[in-house]
Fold:
Amino acid sequence: MSTFITSRTDVTMRSSASRGSALLRVVTMIEMAVERHRSRHALMELSDAQLKDIGISRSEAFREANRPFWG
Structure:
């Protein structure tokens, strides 16, 4: 029969790792939202010809640029 001893340090380290990975997920989500915001606003910098090339009208670009960053 084996006996496993879990020290308080082990539990604390696992808890810290969980917080660390949760923080990493939050940071990643924020980075993605910022990139989405930049991309959407970059559409407004394109000319009408460039928008036409990618199949987007000026009104669609405007609508996309004004969407909330989280959606």
In short: The radius of gyration is 23 Å. The chain has a mean pLDDT of 84. Helices lie at 8-43, 48-53, 58-65. Residues 48 and 58 are 7 Å apart (CA to CA).
